[in-house]
Amino acid sequence: MTNHVENIARRSRRRGIAMIYVIVALVVMLGFCSLAVDLGRVQTAKTELRRAIDAAARSGAAFLPQGTDAVQNAALGIASKNKVDNLFLKLNTADVQIGVWNKSTKTFSTSGSADNVTTFHAVQVTGLRTRANGNPIPLVFGSILGASTCDVKATAVAALISVQTPQSVYVSAHGNPWLAGEPAGTLGSVPDDAYDKPKANNDHPWKYDIANPSKADTSSTVYSDSTKVESSDYSSDEPYGSPAEFNLTVTPGSVIQISVPQGDTATNSGYLDNTGNGISTSADGSNNGSYAIYSDDAANPNLPQGSVTTSGSEHGISNIATPINSVVGVFLNTSNGTVPDDQGTPPTGLDFSTQTSRDYTSLEPDLRQSFYVGDGETSSGVQQTIVVPANATTLFLGTMDGHEWSNNQGGFHATITQFQIELVH
């Protein structure tokens, strides 16, 4: 009897020990589950936060020329469009700081000046998903072990690391933006309704504009060449209509500024006229305070001439609604030798028919999307910034007209400054 009782006791002790082993093993297994599941979640959140902060810093840096408010608004706007652990990231203005990046010491400071050699204007963005911030990353299995959340943090610095020497181009009144990237001999625009009038009384002597990049105006001199492609409709002195071409040296996502000051009527530079009655219209399209809005008639040849619409396209470049004679730009990728027609569906046309729309401080046009440049400033004198779109290699600058750029007079001297944006931290 005694042996039987002792055997039962021993078996009970073994079962008790086994239960302890099971409990310990279960705790260890939960620990591994926490390590596998929660660690993976935290690492994913860190990656998402880093990407969001990098994007916010780059976006903010694009607005550095516009000042603190513009930088912070841009950075906060981009951050709010990115999710971190399934929640849109929210930043405060205090999380976005403007300062100087020292290339030599690799440090960011909110004080100091930029010499564009060693020190550069920069923006620092900090993103927090922490308990103190009220938004930590929750843990599933970690809470069983006493760690219910985990803090993640990321900081990024983007700088205008390289400011290119400003360069100038002449934007001729003959420069048709919709001939951008087109080879010599390409026809643009559509005939004016008055084209068939008696030639002696016709202000529109040329039926189409003709592309020839090698003969684009580089000054107020009108180029003509008897060897150009022409038909019996063309007079021998028709100027070519290719717009000014500027090869970009900054990477897409960086920014440029274009300044187009008014000139003087004596040289026909700084003012345009498309009627032959006097040089009067400025680069922003102003004619004594009035702004006549035009669209490219060739983008919708079946509509009545003078129709104002952003629909349609010509040679793969989108239409636009913008003041006549104003400076217009378009970005293209010319690296592979293809013309715009071969680059897919044209983007949506932009509307700059109001002063508010023309007073943008920063613009992000798509490739092949024509846009208003004007004189490069808002109506209150703030320098405007344009973000270079993905895959862009070349900027083309021309002027606005409804049809027949060839009979215009004058031109503008545009100065282009390029700013390279780089993530430096």
Keywords:
single chain, 425 residues, elongated, 4-stranded antiparallel beta sheet, alpha+beta, 26% strand, 2 domains
Task: Describe what you observe in this structure.
The chain has 425 residues and is an alpha+beta fold. The chain folds into 2 domains: 2-163, no CATH class; 167-420, no CATH class. It has 3 helices and 25 strands. It has helices spanning 2-62, 68-79, 355-358, and strands spanning 83-84, 87-88, 96-102, 107-109, 119-129, 137-138, 149-150, 152-163, 167-172, 187-188, 209-210, 244-247, 255-259, 271-273, 293-294, 313-314, 317-318, 320-323, 327-332, 350-351, 362-363, 371-372, 385-387, 394-399, 409-423. The strands form 7 sheets. Strands 3, 4, 5, 8, 9, 13, 14, 21, 23 and 25 form a 10-stranded mixed β-sheet that branches. Strands 12-24-19-22 form a 4-stranded antiparallel β-sheet, with no helix packed on it. α1 (2-62) packs antiparallel against α2. The longest helix is centred in the N-terminal third of the chain and has 61 residues, at 2-62. The N and C termini lie far apart (80 Å). The model has no long low-confidence stretch (mean pLDDT 86).
Q: Can you lay out the helices and strands and say which pair or pack?
A:
Blueprint: H1 2-62, H2 68-79, E1 83-84, E2 87-88, E3 96-102, E4 107-109, E5 119-129, E6 137-138, E7 149-150, E8 152-163, E9 167-172, E10 187-188, E11 209-210, E12 244-247, E13 255-259, E14 271-273, E15 293-294, E16 313-314, E17 317-318, E18 320-323, E19 327-332, E20 350-351, H3 355-358, E21 362-363, E22 371-372, E23 385-387, E24 394-399, E25 409-423
Parallel strand pairs: 18-20, 21-23
Antiparallel strand pairs: 1-2, 3-4, 3-5, 5-8, 6-7, 8-25, 9-25, 10-11, 12-24, 13-23, 13-25, 14-25, 15-18, 16-17, 19-22, 19-24
